[in-house]
Design a protein that fits this description.
The chain has 347 residues and is α/β, with parallel strands linked by helices. It has a domain of 216 residues: Thiamin diphosphate (ThDP)-binding fold, Pyr/PP domains (Rossmann fold, 3-Layer(aba) Sandwich), CATH 3.40.50.970. It is built from 13 helices and 13 strands. It has an 8-stranded mixed β-sheet with strand order 4-3-5-6-8-7-13-9, sandwiched between helices. Strand 7, helix 8 and strand 8 form a beta-alpha-beta unit. The chain is globular, with a radius of gyration of 22 Å.
Length: 347
C-alpha cells in the first residue's frame, strides 16, 4: 500500500497498514464494503489526527462491523443508534474525530430520528452511509432506499413504498457537507472521504455500495465501465454538468427545471450548461441535483453537492460550559442535588 505522511500535523508517520486491525475481515466475497474499508484506511493518514484521537461508531448491519477492522478506537452499538452514540462521544471528548459507519437500513429506518437531529445540530461528526438498497445482514428484506416495485424476501410482489432520497434528507436536515461516491470508484471515494475529514461540522457521504448476495447489480449502470459515462455526472465546483462517453451530453436549467441536452447538434454548447456551485447558500439546486436519481434517464450525480460553514453544536456546547464556569465557578454533584429545586416526600 502507498505510504502517506502526516508528520506535520501529528508528529507521526502513518501508512494505510497502521489503520488496519488484526481482526479478519468477514464480508461476503465481492461485497462493496471491502472497497470502502480500503479507501478509508488509505486516506486515514491524511486526516491530520493520531490514531488514538479517531473513533468509529456503528449500529447494526453488515457495515457495522467496520469498527473491528479499523486500528482506532471504536464502538459497535445497537440498531439505529450510531448517531446518538457518536453525539455522546463527541460531547464527552470534543477533541476526538468521530466517524459513523452505517447502512441504509440502520441509519434511515430506526435510526432516522437520531440522524436528522445530528445533522440539524451540525455535530462535528463524519457519516459514511453504505447504501445497497437492501437489508443485507438480515438476509434480503427491502430497506428504506429500495426502489418502488423492488422484489425482495419481504416484498415478494414488489414493494409499494417510495424510497428515501438520502441526499435530500441530509440536506433538508442541515448537514453542512453532503456528498456521494461509488464503492467501485476508489480515487473518487478517497477524495470524498478526505474532504469530509477536513470539514468542520456534520459531514455526510452516501456511498453506492453493491450487495452481491441480496441486491447484486443495484448500481451496475453507474459502476460498469461501458455504462458509467452515460449514467453518472461528476460534480466539480465551477465546472459545467457534462457527461456521456464522448462528453456530448449536458444539463441545462430551464428556469428551475433541469433538462438533458445534446451538445453536438449546434443548439446548445458547453457554455449553456449548469455550472456547479458547491458553496451556494441556497439549497434549492442541491434538491434539484438529488432529484436526478428519481428521474428516469438522468445521470446519478457524484461528488460534493454542497458544503458551507456554521457553528457546530459541540463547539457551542463547550463554550457555554466554559462561560458558566467563569461566571458561576465550578459546580459539584452536591450543589446540583441540593439546589432550591428539590423537595421531600413525607409519608
Amino acid at each position: 500500500m502507498e505510504t502517506k505522511v502526516n508528520e506535520m500535523t501529528t508528529g507521526v508517520k502513518y501508512t494505510a497498514k497502521d489503520f488496519a486491525s488484526d481482526v479478519d475481515v468477514k464480508w461476503c466475497p465481492g461485497c462493496g464494503d471491502y472497497s470502502i474499508l480500503a479507501q478509508v484506511q488509505r486516506t486515514s493518514p491524511d486526516f491530520g489526527e493520531k490514531r488514538e484521537n479517531i473513533v468509529w461508531i456503528s449500529g447494526i448491519g453488515c457495515s457495522s462491523r467496520f469498527p473491528y477492522y479499523m486500528n482506532t478506537y471504536g464502538f459497535h452499538g445497537i440498531h439505529g443508534r450510531a448517531a446518538a452514540i457518536a453525539t455522546g462521544v463527541k460531547l464527552a471528548n470534543p477533541k476526538l474525530q468521530v466517524w459513523v459507519a452505517t447502512g441504509d437500513g440502520d441509519m434511515l429506518s430506526i435510526g432516522g430520528n437520531h440522524f436528522i437531529h445530528m445533522c440539524r445540530k451540525n455535530m462535528n461528526i463524519k457519516i459514511l452511509l453504505f447504501n445497497n438498497r437492501i437489508y443485507g445482514l438480515t438476509k434480503g428484506q427491502y430497506s428504506p432506499t429500495s426502489l418502488k416495485g423492488q422484489v425482495t424476501k419481504s416484498s415478494p410482489y414488489g414493494t409499494v413504498d417510495f424510497p428515501f432520497n438520502a441526499i435530500k434528507l441530509a440536506t433538508g436536515s442541515g448537514a453542512t457537507f453532503v456528498a456521494r461516491s461509488l464503492d467501485r470508484d476508489p480515487k473518487h471515494l478517497q477524495e470524498m472521504i478526505t474532504r469530509a475529514a477536513k470539514h468542520t461540522g456534520a459531514a455526510f457521504i452516501e456511498v453506492y455500495q453493491n450487495c452481491p448476495i441480496f441486491n447484486d447489480g443495484a448500481y451496475s449502470l453507474q459502476t460498469e465501465k461501458d455504462t458509467k459515462p452515460d449514467n453518472v455526472v461528476v460534480l466539480e465546483h465551477g465546472k459545467p454538468l457534462v457527461f456521456g462517453v464522448n462528453r456530448d451530453k449536458g444539463i441545462v436549467l430551464d428556469g428551475m427545471n433541469p433538462i438533458i441536452v445534446d451538445l453536438t447538434n449546434g443548439k446548445y454548447s458547453i457554455n449553456d450548461c449548469w455550472v456547479h456551485d458547491e458553496f451556494d447558500d441556497n439549497p434549492t439546486r442541491v434538491f434539484l441535483l438529488a432529484r436526478f436519481t428519481d428521474l428516469p434517464g438522468y445521470p446519478a450525480p457524484i461528488g460534493v453537492f454542497r458544503q458551507f460553514n456554521k457553528p457546530t453544536y459541540d463547539d457551542d456546547y463547550m463554550h457555554q460550559i466554559e462561560h458558566l464556569k467563569n461566571q458561576k465557578g465550578v459546580g459539584s454533584y452536591e450543589k446540583l442535588m441540593y439546589t432550591a429545586n428539590t423537595w421531600e416526600v413525607h409519608q
